[in-house]
């Protein structure tokens, strides 16, 4: 195995573990959403790296769906938080 590939896998694994910890421990819903976005971005980077290393585009539809889920999920949570903050107490 290529040593550079091993280093990349370790870095992505550490970043994913830290993002999952932030999702579990995050003090607010916005912190959890940002951590989920980071995790989805990591998944997208891993899929892109797989496509580049193995010279294929089979996972491109999965990459597009993951990106769309991340964007629409963030928008939905932002709208929810904005509406919740605007309601009179």
From TrEMBL:
It holds the Pfam family MrpF_PhaF. The keyword Cell membrane applies. Its main location: membrane. Keywords: Cell membrane, Membrane, Transmembrane, Transmembrane helix, Transport. It comes from the Bacteria. It is a multi-pass membrane protein. The chain crosses the membrane at residues 6-25, 59-82. It is found in: Cell membrane. Belongs to the CPA3 antiporters (TC 2.A.63) subunit F family. This is Monovalent cation/H+ antiporter complex subunit F. It comes from Microbacterium capsulatum.
């Amino acid at each position: 195995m290529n040593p550079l590939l091993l280093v990349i896998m370790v870095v992505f694994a550490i970043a994913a573990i830290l993002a999952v910890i932030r999702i579990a421990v995050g003090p607010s819903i916005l912190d959890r959403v940002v951590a989920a976005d980071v995790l989805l971005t990591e998944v997208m980077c891993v899929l892109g790296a797989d496509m580049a290393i193995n010279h294929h585009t089979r996972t491109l539809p999965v990459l597009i769906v993951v990106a769309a889920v991340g964007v629409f999920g963030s928008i939905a949570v932002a709208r929810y938080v904005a509406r919740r903050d605007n309601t009179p107490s």
